[in-house]
Amino acid sequence: MSTSNTKGQITGGRRQAALGFIFVTAILDVLSLGVMIPVLPNLVKAFGGGDTAAAADWNVLFATTWGVMQFFCSPVLGLLSDRFGRRPVILTSIFGLGVDFLFMAFAPSLWWLFVGRIFNGMTAASFSTASAYVADVTTPETRAKGFGLMGAAFGIGFTLGPALGGWLWTFDHRAPFLVCAALALCNWLYGFFVLPESLPPERRQTRFDWKKANPVGSLRLLNSRPGLLGLAGVGFLFQLAHNVLPSVFVLYMGFRYGWSPQVIGLTMMASGISSIIVQALVVGRVVKALGERGALLIGLFSGFAGFMVYALAPTGVLYLCGLPLFALSGLIMPGLQGLMTRRVAPNEQGQLQGANSALMGVASIIGPSLFLLPFAFAVRHDATLHMPGLPVLIAASLMLLATLLAWAKARPAPTLEPQSA
């Protein structure tokens, strides 16, 4: 892309500074979410009197509601970022995340937690809009590497976050949420004073079109480019399978292996370290040697194999053996995003990410019931069924389907020029 700074584009050192900010933003965003992962299910469980199955049922309601809000609101936020720029959407999303954590910190009942999840679902677009930001400031040839940077941020956040959350939980059950709210506030202030805009006015949509902003209109974009719908299907299956992690893994590891929140946090920390290693040392080399398609296929099959280990491991030690294998699933998003962003124009990147987030919302609607209800059933019938890993086997099946679809549909495509609104 052009690097002329006379029209507001990010150039030279400012481009590197912008990528650095997005990297920090993504880390803080995922760090705050990582802190919540080992804590929120246990807080829900505490509100429910310690009943694991009841906690699973409540988490279905929470996660499904969040997914519904994201399904309807993400396309609007994506198109807003194409029309008015990435910066205001990112800042709004970070602010919404902070408000959500304050609700959770002071919630006197489960219904207050529910209100917080509604508000967060309405504004949850910081990571997806950050992906559009990365597409703005990278070339098609370096885009997979840029998305690999996002993956590294994801890994760092999930390395430190769960361990921090488990540690804070030992002092006070509300402390993790207060820390997350403070992190979100710091992130918002940093972005307000530092973050430059990545999408100059002449590369934006000329008007905001509600026909494109609704979920159906946003998803039409996926059917308007060759191969894009198939890739979106791969992403949907991956996101649906990935929902098993936040949905049941804290409850699953606690039930099957008897691990405490602190041990679970350390396990997630080990998973995050493995992911960072993959992003730092593997993604670039694999993309260079095998292309974005090769990276995507290796990542999907590794995710399938890792889930199989997680589901069938009878002991905690064998479960840990699956961590390095599953870490290779970090190849999925750099490969998939690289292939998808080549198929849309610069002023459609936000709409693309909005459509992807809408599909993520659908996955978040379906995922909790798909995984938590079988888990609750398995827990209630453990004496006869002996299959607490049932939901993880379902996730493995979805990853295998995604691998087969990617084999058929993942093909290179030329990069498009800006499209009129």
TrEMBL record:
Cell compartments where the protein resides: Membrane
N-terminal signal peptide: none
Domain (Major facilitator superfamily (MFS) profile) ranges: 18-414
InterPro entries in alphabetical order: MFS, MFS_dom, MFS_trans_sf, Sugar_transporter_CS, Tet-R_TetA/multi-R_MdtG-like
Keywords of the record: Membrane, Transmembrane, Transmembrane helix, Transport
Membrane topology, as annotated: Multi-pass membrane protein
The organism's place on the tree of life at top rank: Bacteria
Main location: membrane
GO terms of molecular function: transmembrane transporter activity
One Gene Ontology cellular component annotation held by this UniProt entry: membrane
Transmembrane regions: 21-40, 60-80, 89-112, 118-135, 147-169, 175-195, 228-253, 259-282, 294-311, 317-336, 357-377, 389-408
Pfam families: MFS_1
SUPFAM superfamilies in the cross-refs: MFS general substrate transporter (SSF103473)
Function: Resistance to tetracycline by an active tetracycline efflux. This is an energy-dependent process that decreases the accumulation of the antibiotic in whole cells. This protein functions as a metal-tetracycline/H(+) antiporter.
Membership in a protein family: Belongs to the major facilitator superfamily. TCR/Tet family.
Name of the protein in its database record: Major facilitator superfamily MFS_1
Naturally occurring in which organism (per UniProt): Caulobacter segnis (strain ATCC 21756 / DSM 7131 / JCM 7823 / NBRC 15250 / LMG 17158 / TK0059) (Mycoplana segnis)
